[in-house]
From TrEMBL:
Coiled-coil stretches: 34-204
Taxonomy of the source species: Eukaryota, Viridiplantae, Streptophyta, Embryophyta, Tracheophyta
Alphabetic keyword roster: Coiled coil, mRNA transport, Nuclear pore complex, Nucleus, Protein transport, Translocation, Transport
InterPro entries with a match to the protein in the record: GLE1, GLE1-like_sf
One GO molecular-function entry: inositol hexakisphosphate binding
Organism: Arabis alpina
Superkingdom field: Eukaryota
Similarity field: Belongs to the GLE1 family.
Any Gene Ontology biological process: poly(A)+ mRNA export from nucleus
A Gene Ontology term for the protein's cellular component: nuclear pore cytoplasmic filaments
Subcellular location: Nucleus, Nuclear pore complex
Gene3D superfamilies given in the database record: GLE1-like
UniProt-recorded name of the protein: mRNA export factor GLE1
Amino acid sequence: MVMIKDHETHVMEDILRNQELLVDKEVLLEIETFRSAIARIEKYREDRKQVEVNLDQRQVAQALCTYLAAQRANQEEKIRQEKARLEAQTRVKEEAERAKEVARKEVAYRKAHEERIRQEKAIADRKALEERIRLEKARLDAAKKEAEREKAAKEVAEQTLEKERVSVAATSNVQAAESALRLENQRMKKLEELEATNQSLKSRSNQDFSSYEKRINRAIRQITNRNASERANDIVEIFKDPRCPLSISIAAFAKKMITDVCGNIHGIEHGWAWFAGFLNGISANDKASTTALYGFLQTAGFGLHQRYKTQFLKLVNVFREHFLAKLRMESELQLKKGSSGLQTITTEITTYLDNRMYLKEPEGRRMFTEAQVDEQNNNHHNQRNY
Protein backbone atom coordinates (compact mmCIF):
# COMPACT_ATOMS: atom_id res chain seq x y z
CA MET A 1 0.00 0.00 0.00
CA VAL A 2 2.71 2.25 1.01
CA MET A 3 4.46 1.43 -2.18
CA ILE A 4 1.38 2.15 -4.15
CA LYS A 5 0.92 5.35 -2.39
CA ASP A 6 4.52 6.30 -2.88
CA HIS A 7 4.19 5.36 -6.48
CA GLU A 8 1.07 7.39 -6.83
CA THR A 9 2.80 10.15 -4.98
CA HIS A 10 5.72 9.96 -7.39
CA VAL A 11 3.33 9.76 -10.27
CA MET A 12 1.43 12.70 -8.95
CA GLU A 13 4.64 14.60 -8.41
CA ASP A 14 5.71 13.72 -11.90
CA ILE A 15 2.38 14.81 -13.19
CA LEU A 16 2.55 17.98 -11.17
CA ARG A 17 6.14 18.48 -12.23
CA ASN A 18 5.16 17.94 -15.84
CA GLN A 19 2.20 20.21 -15.45
CA GLU A 20 4.41 22.76 -13.78
CA LEU A 21 6.84 22.48 -16.65
CA LEU A 22 4.00 22.78 -19.09
CA VAL A 23 2.69 25.73 -17.18
CA ASP A 24 6.17 27.26 -17.12
CA LYS A 25 6.48 26.65 -20.82
CA GLU A 26 3.08 28.13 -21.43
CA VAL A 27 3.94 31.06 -19.21
CA LEU A 28 7.21 31.51 -21.04
CA LEU A 29 5.35 31.13 -24.32
CA GLU A 30 2.78 33.66 -23.21
CA ILE A 31 5.53 35.98 -22.05
CA GLU A 32 7.27 35.57 -25.38
CA THR A 33 3.99 36.08 -27.20
CA PHE A 34 3.33 39.19 -25.08
CA ARG A 35 6.79 40.47 -25.74
CA SER A 36 6.36 39.80 -29.44
CA ALA A 37 3.00 41.55 -29.37
CA ILE A 38 4.52 44.46 -27.46
CA ALA A 39 7.33 44.59 -30.00
CA ARG A 40 4.86 44.54 -32.87
CA ILE A 41 2.80 47.22 -31.18
CA GLU A 42 5.91 49.35 -30.70
CA LYS A 43 6.91 48.75 -34.28
CA TYR A 44 3.40 49.59 -35.45
CA ARG A 45 3.43 52.73 -33.35
CA GLU A 46 6.80 53.70 -34.78
CA ASP A 47 5.57 52.93 -38.27
CA ARG A 48 2.41 54.91 -37.62
CA LYS A 49 4.38 57.78 -36.23
CA GLN A 50 6.61 57.71 -39.33
CA VAL A 51 3.53 57.56 -41.54
CA GLU A 52 2.06 60.52 -39.71
CA VAL A 53 5.36 62.39 -40.00
CA ASN A 54 5.50 61.58 -43.71
CA LEU A 55 1.86 62.65 -44.04
CA ASP A 56 2.55 65.94 -42.26
CA GLN A 57 5.59 66.54 -44.48
CA ARG A 58 3.50 65.81 -47.57
CA GLN A 59 0.81 68.21 -46.42
CA VAL A 60 3.41 70.85 -45.68
CA ALA A 61 4.95 70.19 -49.07
CA GLN A 62 1.54 70.42 -50.72
CA ALA A 63 0.77 73.66 -48.85
CA LEU A 64 4.18 75.00 -49.84
CA CYS A 65 3.59 73.99 -53.43
CA THR A 66 0.17 75.63 -53.35
CA TYR A 67 1.64 78.83 -51.87
CA LEU A 68 4.49 78.87 -54.35
CA ALA A 69 2.07 78.23 -57.21
CA ALA A 70 -0.12 81.11 -56.00
CA GLN A 71 2.92 83.36 -55.68
CA ARG A 72 4.12 82.33 -59.12
CA ALA A 73 0.65 82.95 -60.58
CA ASN A 74 0.49 86.33 -58.84
CA GLN A 75 3.95 87.21 -60.11
CA GLU A 76 3.03 86.07 -63.62
CA GLU A 77 -0.14 88.21 -63.44
CA LYS A 78 1.90 91.23 -62.37
CA ILE A 79 4.38 90.56 -65.15
CA ARG A 80 1.51 90.24 -67.64
CA GLN A 81 -0.07 93.48 -66.43
CA GLU A 82 3.28 95.31 -66.53
CA LYS A 83 3.90 93.94 -70.00
CA ALA A 84 0.44 95.07 -71.11
CA ARG A 85 1.09 98.52 -69.61
CA LEU A 86 4.44 98.79 -71.36
CA GLU A 87 2.87 97.63 -74.62
CA ALA A 88 0.11 100.24 -74.20
CA GLN A 89 2.70 102.95 -73.54
CA THR A 90 4.68 101.75 -76.52
CA ARG A 91 1.57 101.87 -78.71
CA VAL A 92 0.78 105.38 -77.47
CA LYS A 93 4.34 106.51 -78.18
CA GLU A 94 4.24 104.87 -81.60
CA GLU A 95 0.91 106.54 -82.36
CA ALA A 96 2.33 109.89 -81.25
CA GLU A 97 5.45 109.35 -83.35
CA ARG A 98 3.31 108.35 -86.34
CA ALA A 99 1.12 111.42 -85.84
CA LYS A 100 4.21 113.64 -85.61
CA GLU A 101 5.65 112.01 -88.70
CA VAL A 102 2.38 112.47 -90.59
CA ALA A 103 2.20 116.12 -89.47
CA ARG A 104 5.83 116.65 -90.44
CA LYS A 105 5.23 115.09 -93.84
CA GLU A 106 2.11 117.22 -94.30
CA VAL A 107 4.04 120.38 -93.38
CA ALA A 108 6.90 119.39 -95.67
CA TYR A 109 4.46 118.59 -98.47
CA ARG A 110 2.60 121.85 -97.96
CA LYS A 111 5.84 123.82 -97.93
CA ALA A 112 7.05 122.01 -101.02
CA HIS A 113 3.69 122.62 -102.70
CA GLU A 114 3.75 126.30 -101.77
CA GLU A 115 7.35 126.60 -102.93
CA ARG A 116 6.47 124.90 -106.21
CA ILE A 117 3.49 127.22 -106.69
CA ARG A 118 5.67 130.22 -105.81
CA GLN A 119 8.34 129.14 -108.27
CA GLU A 120 5.76 128.49 -110.97
CA LYS A 121 4.20 131.89 -110.30
CA ALA A 122 7.62 133.55 -110.34
CA ILE A 123 8.43 131.85 -113.63
CA ALA A 124 5.06 132.85 -115.08
CA ASP A 125 5.49 136.42 -113.82
CA ARG A 126 8.99 136.58 -115.24
CA LYS A 127 7.80 135.27 -118.59
CA ALA A 128 4.88 137.70 -118.59
CA LEU A 129 7.22 140.56 -117.68
CA GLU A 130 9.65 139.55 -120.40
CA GLU A 131 6.78 139.38 -122.86
CA ARG A 132 5.55 142.81 -121.78
CA ILE A 133 9.07 144.19 -122.05
CA ARG A 134 9.43 142.71 -125.51
CA LEU A 135 6.10 144.11 -126.64
CA GLU A 136 6.87 147.45 -125.05
CA LYS A 137 10.27 147.53 -126.70
CA ALA A 138 8.71 146.73 -130.04
CA ARG A 139 6.10 149.42 -129.49
CA LEU A 140 8.77 151.94 -128.50
CA ASP A 141 10.83 151.08 -131.53
CA ALA A 142 7.80 151.52 -133.75
CA ALA A 143 6.90 154.77 -132.00
CA LYS A 144 10.47 156.00 -132.35
CA LYS A 145 10.51 155.26 -136.06
CA GLU A 146 7.12 156.91 -136.44
CA ALA A 147 8.30 159.93 -134.46
CA GLU A 148 11.36 160.32 -136.69
CA ARG A 149 9.09 160.53 -139.72
CA GLU A 150 6.97 163.28 -138.21
CA LYS A 151 7.20 166.70 -139.80
CA ALA A 152 8.24 169.97 -138.23
CA ALA A 153 4.71 171.38 -138.44
CA LYS A 154 3.34 168.62 -136.28
CA GLU A 155 6.13 169.16 -133.76
CA VAL A 156 5.28 172.85 -133.55
CA ALA A 157 1.60 172.02 -133.06
CA GLU A 158 2.42 169.60 -130.28
CA GLN A 159 4.62 172.16 -128.55
CA THR A 160 1.87 174.76 -128.76
CA LEU A 161 -0.72 172.33 -127.40
CA GLU A 162 1.60 171.34 -124.55
CA LYS A 163 2.18 174.97 -123.61
CA GLU A 164 -1.57 175.65 -123.59
CA ARG A 165 -2.23 172.59 -121.43
CA VAL A 166 0.50 173.55 -118.97
CA SER A 167 -0.89 177.09 -118.80
CA VAL A 168 -4.43 175.84 -118.10
CA ALA A 169 -3.19 173.40 -115.45
CA ALA A 170 -1.13 176.10 -113.76
CA THR A 171 -4.12 178.46 -113.71
CA SER A 172 -6.35 175.75 -112.18
CA ASN A 173 -3.72 174.90 -109.59
CA VAL A 174 -3.31 178.55 -108.60
CA GLN A 175 -7.06 179.02 -108.29
CA ALA A 176 -7.41 175.81 -106.29
CA ALA A 177 -4.52 176.77 -104.04
CA GLU A 178 -5.97 180.23 -103.38
CA SER A 179 -9.40 178.75 -102.57
CA ALA A 180 -7.90 176.14 -100.25
CA LEU A 181 -5.78 178.77 -98.54
CA ARG A 182 -8.80 181.01 -98.02
CA LEU A 183 -10.88 178.16 -96.55
CA GLU A 184 -8.00 177.13 -94.31
CA ASN A 185 -7.60 180.68 -93.03
CA GLN A 186 -11.31 180.89 -92.28
CA ARG A 187 -11.21 177.55 -90.49
CA MET A 188 -8.21 178.53 -88.40
CA LYS A 189 -9.85 181.85 -87.54
CA LYS A 190 -13.01 180.09 -86.33
CA LEU A 191 -10.92 177.59 -84.38
CA GLU A 192 -8.96 180.36 -82.68
CA GLU A 193 -12.17 182.20 -81.82
CA LEU A 194 -13.66 179.02 -80.34
CA GLU A 195 -10.52 178.32 -78.31
CA ALA A 196 -10.43 181.92 -77.05
CA THR A 197 -14.08 181.71 -76.01
CA ASN A 198 -13.54 178.42 -74.18
CA GLN A 199 -10.44 179.69 -72.42
CA SER A 200 -12.32 182.79 -71.32
CA LEU A 201 -15.24 180.70 -70.01
CA LYS A 202 -12.94 178.34 -68.13
CA SER A 203 -10.96 181.20 -66.59
CA ARG A 204 -14.12 183.03 -65.40
CA SER A 205 -15.76 179.88 -64.02
CA ASN A 206 -14.49 177.84 -61.11
CA GLN A 207 -16.33 174.75 -62.36
CA ASP A 208 -14.43 171.76 -63.75
CA PHE A 209 -15.85 170.80 -67.17
CA SER A 210 -13.70 167.67 -67.59
CA SER A 211 -16.58 165.47 -66.38
CA TYR A 212 -18.64 166.54 -69.40
CA GLU A 213 -15.74 165.66 -71.70
CA LYS A 214 -15.51 162.22 -70.06
CA ARG A 215 -19.28 161.71 -70.48
CA ILE A 216 -19.01 162.59 -74.17
CA ASN A 217 -16.02 160.24 -74.63
CA ARG A 218 -17.84 157.43 -72.83
CA ALA A 219 -20.99 157.91 -74.94
CA ILE A 220 -18.94 157.82 -78.16
CA ARG A 221 -17.09 154.66 -77.10
CA GLN A 222 -20.40 152.92 -76.31
CA ILE A 223 -21.94 153.59 -79.74
CA THR A 224 -23.02 150.42 -81.58
CA ASN A 225 -25.40 149.68 -84.45
CA ARG A 226 -28.26 149.03 -82.03
CA ASN A 227 -27.86 151.91 -79.58
CA ALA A 228 -26.56 154.63 -81.90
CA SER A 229 -29.73 156.73 -81.53
CA GLU A 230 -29.69 156.37 -77.73
CA ARG A 231 -26.04 157.44 -77.48
CA ALA A 232 -26.73 160.33 -79.84
CA ASN A 233 -29.59 161.45 -77.59
CA ASP A 234 -27.22 161.24 -74.60
CA ILE A 235 -24.72 163.48 -76.38
CA VAL A 236 -27.48 165.94 -77.32
CA GLU A 237 -28.61 166.02 -73.68
CA ILE A 238 -25.04 166.88 -72.68
CA PHE A 239 -25.09 169.70 -75.25
CA LYS A 240 -28.36 170.95 -73.75
CA ASP A 241 -27.05 170.87 -70.18
CA PRO A 242 -27.06 174.55 -69.05
CA ARG A 243 -24.27 173.90 -66.54
CA CYS A 244 -21.74 173.37 -69.35
CA PRO A 245 -21.33 176.02 -72.09
CA LEU A 246 -22.22 174.69 -75.52
CA SER A 247 -18.90 175.77 -77.06
CA ILE A 248 -16.94 173.68 -74.53
CA SER A 249 -19.04 170.54 -75.07
CA ILE A 250 -18.89 171.01 -78.87
CA ALA A 251 -15.09 171.39 -78.71
CA ALA A 252 -14.79 168.21 -76.60
CA PHE A 253 -17.02 166.33 -79.04
CA ALA A 254 -15.03 167.58 -82.07
CA LYS A 255 -11.70 166.67 -80.47
CA LYS A 256 -12.91 163.13 -79.75
CA MET A 257 -14.31 162.70 -83.25
CA ILE A 258 -11.00 163.82 -84.78
CA THR A 259 -8.99 161.31 -82.74
CA ASP A 260 -11.42 158.49 -83.56
CA VAL A 261 -11.62 159.14 -87.31
CA CYS A 262 -11.48 155.94 -89.38
CA GLY A 263 -8.73 155.36 -91.90
CA ASN A 264 -9.01 154.74 -95.60
CA ILE A 265 -11.68 152.06 -96.11
CA HIS A 266 -9.90 150.72 -99.18
CA GLY A 267 -6.68 149.94 -97.35
CA ILE A 268 -3.10 149.62 -98.51
CA GLU A 269 -3.91 146.39 -100.37
CA HIS A 270 -5.82 148.37 -103.01
CA GLY A 271 -2.82 150.64 -103.41
CA TRP A 272 -0.59 147.62 -104.00
CA ALA A 273 -3.02 146.26 -106.61
CA TRP A 274 -3.25 149.69 -108.29
CA PHE A 275 0.55 150.02 -108.41
CA ALA A 276 0.99 146.56 -109.93
CA GLY A 277 -1.84 147.14 -112.41
CA PHE A 278 -0.32 150.51 -113.32
CA LEU A 279 2.99 148.90 -114.27
CA ASN A 280 1.18 146.30 -116.36
CA GLY A 281 -1.20 148.57 -118.27
CA ILE A 282 0.19 152.13 -118.55
CA SER A 283 2.69 153.28 -121.14
CA ALA A 284 5.67 155.45 -120.29
CA ASN A 285 4.66 158.32 -122.60
CA ASP A 286 1.42 159.13 -120.75
CA LYS A 287 2.20 162.25 -118.73
CA ALA A 288 -1.11 162.34 -116.83
CA SER A 289 -0.76 158.74 -115.66
CA THR A 290 2.91 159.24 -114.80
CA THR A 291 2.04 162.32 -112.74
CA ALA A 292 -0.66 160.32 -110.96
CA LEU A 293 1.90 157.58 -110.27
CA TYR A 294 4.31 160.08 -108.70
CA GLY A 295 1.52 161.47 -106.50
CA PHE A 296 0.60 157.92 -105.51
CA LEU A 297 4.20 157.12 -104.51
CA GLN A 298 4.41 160.30 -102.44
CA THR A 299 1.18 159.42 -100.62
CA ALA A 300 1.28 155.62 -100.32
CA GLY A 301 4.96 154.71 -100.82
CA PHE A 302 5.67 154.82 -97.08
CA GLY A 303 2.66 152.64 -96.25
CA LEU A 304 3.49 150.12 -98.99
CA HIS A 305 7.07 149.83 -97.72
CA GLN A 306 5.86 149.41 -94.12
CA ARG A 307 3.44 146.65 -95.16
CA TYR A 308 5.27 144.70 -97.89
CA LYS A 309 8.98 145.43 -97.15
CA THR A 310 11.13 143.44 -99.62
CA GLN A 311 8.23 142.79 -102.01
CA PHE A 312 7.73 146.53 -102.40
CA LEU A 313 11.47 147.00 -102.96
CA LYS A 314 11.40 144.31 -105.66
CA LEU A 315 8.49 146.05 -107.36
CA VAL A 316 10.35 149.37 -107.11
CA ASN A 317 13.40 147.76 -108.75
CA VAL A 318 11.22 146.44 -111.58
CA PHE A 319 9.72 149.91 -111.92
CA ARG A 320 13.18 151.51 -111.97
CA GLU A 321 14.70 149.06 -114.46
CA HIS A 322 11.86 149.00 -116.96
CA PHE A 323 9.25 151.71 -116.61
CA LEU A 324 11.59 154.51 -115.47
CA ALA A 325 14.13 153.58 -118.14
CA LYS A 326 11.43 153.82 -120.80
CA LEU A 327 10.23 157.07 -119.25
CA ARG A 328 13.74 158.53 -119.55
CA MET A 329 13.95 157.43 -123.18
CA GLU A 330 10.57 158.99 -123.91
CA SER A 331 11.56 162.17 -122.06
CA GLU A 332 14.81 162.47 -124.02
CA LEU A 333 12.92 161.84 -127.24
CA GLN A 334 10.42 164.59 -126.47
CA LEU A 335 13.25 166.88 -125.34
CA LYS A 336 14.91 166.46 -128.72
CA LYS A 337 11.63 167.48 -130.29
CA GLY A 338 11.56 170.60 -128.15
CA SER A 339 9.02 169.40 -125.57
CA SER A 340 9.98 169.10 -121.88
CA GLY A 341 6.65 167.76 -120.65
CA LEU A 342 8.05 164.51 -119.18
CA GLN A 343 11.44 165.86 -118.11
CA THR A 344 10.22 167.38 -114.82
CA ILE A 345 8.15 164.41 -113.68
CA THR A 346 10.97 162.02 -114.66
CA THR A 347 13.44 163.99 -112.54
CA GLU A 348 11.04 164.06 -109.58
CA ILE A 349 10.41 160.30 -109.70
CA THR A 350 14.15 159.60 -110.05
CA THR A 351 14.90 161.83 -107.05
CA TYR A 352 12.16 160.11 -105.02
CA LEU A 353 13.61 156.65 -105.71
CA ASP A 354 17.31 157.59 -105.42
CA ASN A 355 16.78 159.33 -102.07
CA ARG A 356 14.56 156.46 -100.88
CA MET A 357 11.93 158.96 -99.80
CA TYR A 358 9.47 156.10 -99.24
CA LEU A 359 11.28 155.48 -95.92
CA LYS A 360 10.07 158.84 -94.59
CA GLU A 361 6.49 159.13 -93.37
CA PRO A 362 4.66 161.81 -95.40
CA GLU A 363 3.50 164.86 -93.50
CA GLY A 364 -0.15 164.72 -92.46
CA ARG A 365 -0.40 160.93 -92.75
CA ARG A 366 -1.26 160.49 -89.06
CA MET A 367 -4.06 162.27 -87.24
CA PHE A 368 -3.15 164.31 -84.17
CA THR A 369 -3.70 162.54 -80.88
CA GLU A 370 -5.55 164.29 -78.08
CA ALA A 371 -2.25 165.19 -76.41
CA GLN A 372 -0.95 166.67 -79.67
CA VAL A 373 -4.18 168.59 -80.19
CA ASP A 374 -3.94 169.97 -76.64
CA GLU A 375 -0.30 170.85 -77.22
CA GLN A 376 -1.14 172.58 -80.48
CA ASN A 377 -3.99 174.46 -78.82
CA ASN A 378 -1.65 175.56 -76.04
CA ASN A 379 0.88 176.72 -78.62
CA HIS A 380 -1.79 178.75 -80.41
CA HIS A 381 -2.92 180.17 -77.09
CA ASN A 382 0.64 181.09 -76.11
CA GLN A 383 1.23 182.70 -79.48
CA ARG A 384 -1.92 184.79 -79.09
CA ASN A 385 -0.91 185.79 -75.56
CA TYR A 386 2.52 186.68 -76.85
